[in-house]
Structure formats: C-alpha cells, structure tokens
Design brief:
Layout: H1 37-54, H2 60-82, E1 90-93, E2 96-98, E3 103-105, H3 106-119, E4 123-124, H4 127-136, H5 148-157, E5 162-170, E6 174-183, E7 188-198, H6 209-216, E8 232-237, H7 243-259, E9 263-264, H8 267-276, H9 288-298, E10 302-311, E11 314-323, E12 328-332, E13 336-338, H10 342-370, H11 375-396
Parallel strand pairs: 1-4, 1-5, 8-9, 8-10
Antiparallel strand pairs: 2-3, 5-6, 6-7, 10-11, 11-12, 11-13
Helix pairs in contact: 1-2, 2-11, 3-6, 7-10
Length: 415
C-alpha cells in the first residue's frame, strides 16, 4: 500500500525525515560554503542555470549569453565529479608473523602504519582500534595471522577495505620479509612483495629494518588491477618440513601473488583439496607429465612448484612452472646447490625475473597488435560536443512564444 501524504509539522525535529510521509521541498546545498574556487564557481553557474530555466520570457541577447554559461556549467559538473575528494580507504595492518616461532611481531606493523600514513593513499586503522573491534567480536587480538581467510575475517571485523599482512623470518644471515595486500570486497590479493635484509650490521648491504619496510611499500596504491586473469594457478611445495623450506615456500607463494596475471589458489585451500582427493604430494615425482596430471585433478590451468632437498653436504632447490591446459613448460630452472638458504634467494630472484620478462614480452606483443589511432574515441568526443551544443541551444529557446506550452499551475507556496 502507498502511504498517504502527511502534513509537514512546524517542529521538524520530532522524526527522521526518511521515516516521514510528507512531501518535502527540494533544498539545494550551498556548495559555495565549502571554500574551494571550483566549488564556488560551480555553485554560481548552477544557480544561474536554475534561474534561467525557471523563467520562460527571455530576450534573445540573454539567450546568447546563457549558451556559453550552460556549456561552462556542464564542464564544471564533469570536473566536479572527477576531482571530488574521495575518502581514503581504510586499511588494517596486521602484525607480521615469524614463520619459525609462529608469533606476531608488533613493532614492524607500527612501521608500516606510519609509512602508509605519510604516503596519504590509505587511512591506517590504529592498533588500539583494531584490538578493540576484534575483542568486541570475541576474536583474540594477539593471534598470528598469515592466511587469506584469517586476514579477510579480521579485516571485515575492523570494517576495513584493505588488509596488509605477511611474515618476517630470520635466518642465520638474512631476514626474509613477505607482504601481501588483500582487497576485502573481492577477497583477492592485489599486491605482494618479497624483500630480504642482511642481519649482520658489519655487512655493507645491511639496512635498518624500518628503511627496508618503507621502501617495500613505497609504491603501494589502492588502485585495483584491471588485467584479465590468465588462468587459475596453484603453488606446490615438495620439500621436507624444515624451517628453511617453510621460508622458501612462503616466498614462493608471495611471489606468485605478485605476478598479478593469475587467480591463485591459497595454500590452505590447496592442502584441503589434496587431502579430500587423497593425494600424497610427497609420493609424486616432479616432472611435466606428473605435474600436468596433478593440475588436471585439482582443476587448475597452471602449476608451479618448489622443492628443497639435500644432497651430500649441500642443499638443492628447484623451481618450475607448467601450463596444465596446453600441457607445456612455461619455465624450468635446473636445481641450484648452496650451503645456506641465502644462495637460494638469488636463484629465486633470477627465476621470477625471467618469468616476469616472459609475461612482459607477451603484453608488449599484444600492445603492438592493438596499437593505432583511436578514431572511435575522437568520433565519440566530437558527437558529445555537438550534442552538448544542441542541448544548450534548445534550453536557450525555451523562452520563445512558439515553443511555450500551457503549464499546469504549480503547488501552493508553503511559506
């Protein structure tokens, strides 16, 4: 049933306007009080346009004056929509987790918040506010979190649009840091980065940890990627359950997210799927045929794996990526031998640098094919300009007698 119109009371504070049934007058906001020059000019042109359209008997010289005024109003309206200040998206920065101890490190999260606050692209939620909101929902604020589902749940409870989380694990000579940016609405990681810092102060390449973290997120932006997904990818680890293997696998999955060309199956989801299919990954011999067969079983289009194994007095590490859909090798690198884990960091850097160059060549070939003058864009802009001019002229002729129509009387004044 449609509610009947009520009477507008003298005391308008007795109820919320959206809950009432009276017909309210349209009141235009006074944009000129907001202070900026563009807003004041926009408000002036808007008021002039409303006054012009409300009067029908306008002589010809005034009509000529209002045509450029209407055009200016249209341009300012578009500019006002483009340059309007948008609130900064809220971001929840979680404590980085040490993989070896599985404990959160609060001091590193504070460095990240300070850097994000200085950059001005995000609004970091303070640590106290995060803990209060999590505690109000019965969640332990000191829980270590390095999984997408956990980060999504904590970010949703904090009412944030983004969540920054990751790990910080120390080895004998290096500190390995992984960072991932989760977009809550899409539930996807849209940015990821891996950095390393030597922990020996006497080494020239050693830097303060705050400088390393600030440089790592210096280019962080809330803009979402617009590239289409190249497929569904899973990252497997065939290594033994050691601390070094955990660090390498964390770096591998983070770098896979950082490629940005694929939808990535999370490690927790992959483990659950392998358990449901009763697949023992350690019984699989890594080869192209076996990887393609495994990828078909778990339903992915691409598969990448890392394997750390020991031979005599050294460890060896191997990375390879396969195209399951086309049954082809994307990139394979021979096993690399090193006496410590830091040597594998360089091997890993080279592998993903070559992989990124491969994708870069494919994108450049596509751009060359698609390059050319954008005649459609210029044609659309031309038609838009002609249409705007015609509309301005039509509005300017509303005051002519030959176009004037008998209008019904307006509502009685409520004043």
């Amino acid at each position: 049933m449609e509610a009947t119109s009520g009477f507008e009371p003298l005391n308008k504070a007795f109820a919320e306007p959206p809950l009432t049934t009276w017909v309210r007058r349209l009141v235009w906001p006074n944009l000129a009080k907001q202070g900026t020059f563009s807003t004041k000019l926009f408000s002036l042109c808007f008021s002039k346009l409303i006054h012009f359209m409300s009067s029908f008997k306008v002589d010809f010289p005034k009509r000529l004056f209002h045509i450029p005024l209407i055009t200016l109003f249209s341009l300012l309206g578009v500019g006002q929509a483009i340059f309007a200040q948008v609130p900064k998206p809220k971001i929840a920065v979680l404590d980085l987790v040490d993989i070896n101890t599985e404990r959160p490190i609060a001091s590193l999260a504070e460095i990240l918040r300070d850097r994000l606050e200085k950059d001005g692209k995000f609004h970091p939620i303070s640590r106290d506010t995060l803990h209060q909101r999590w505690a109000s929902f019965g969640s332990d604020p000191n829980t270590a979190c390095n999984q997408i589902q956990c980060a999504f749940d904590l970010g949703s409870l904090a009412q944030a649009q983004f969540v920054l989380f990751g790990t910080a694990s120390k080895t004998q000579q290096f500190q390995s840091i992984t960072l991932k940016l989760l977009h809550i609405q899409s539930a996807k990681i849209i940015w990821a980065k891996v950095v390393s810092n030597e922990t020996n102060p006497g080494v020239n390449r050693s830097q303060p940890i705050d400088k390393v973290l600030e440089d790592a997120i210096s280019g962080l932006s809330p803009e979402l990627p617009r590239e289409k997904s190249a497929g569904y990818l899973a990252a497997l680890d065939f290594s033994e359950n050691t601390s070094n293997a955990k660090i390498l696998y964390e770096r591998l999955t983070t770098r896979v997210y950082g490629i940005g060309h694929y939808d990535v199956m999370s490690p927790s989801e992959l483990e659950e799927l392998l358990a449901a299919l009763e697949i023992n990954k350690f019984s699989i011999v890594p080869s192209m045929e076996n990887m393609v067969a495994l990828g078909q079983k778990i339903g992915v289009t691409h598969l990448i794996y890392g394997r750390l194994f020991r031979e005599t007095d050294k460890y060896r590490y191997r990375l390879a990526m396969y195209d399951v859909a086309n049954k082809a090798v994307v990139q394979e690198a021979p096993a690399f031998a090193s006496s410590d884990i830091t040597g594998f960091f360089t091997y890993e850097d080279d592998f993903f640098r070559d992989l990124t160059q491969t994708f870069g060549n494919k994108k450049s070939d596509f751009k060359k094919k698609a390059a050319g003058p954008s005649y459609g864009l210029w044609l659309s802009l031309g038609l838009l300009g002609l249409g705007g001019t015609a509309a301005a002229y039509w509005v300017s002729t509303l005051g002519d007698e030959q176009f004037k129509e008998d209008l019904p009387p307006g509502p009685p004044s409520t004043r």
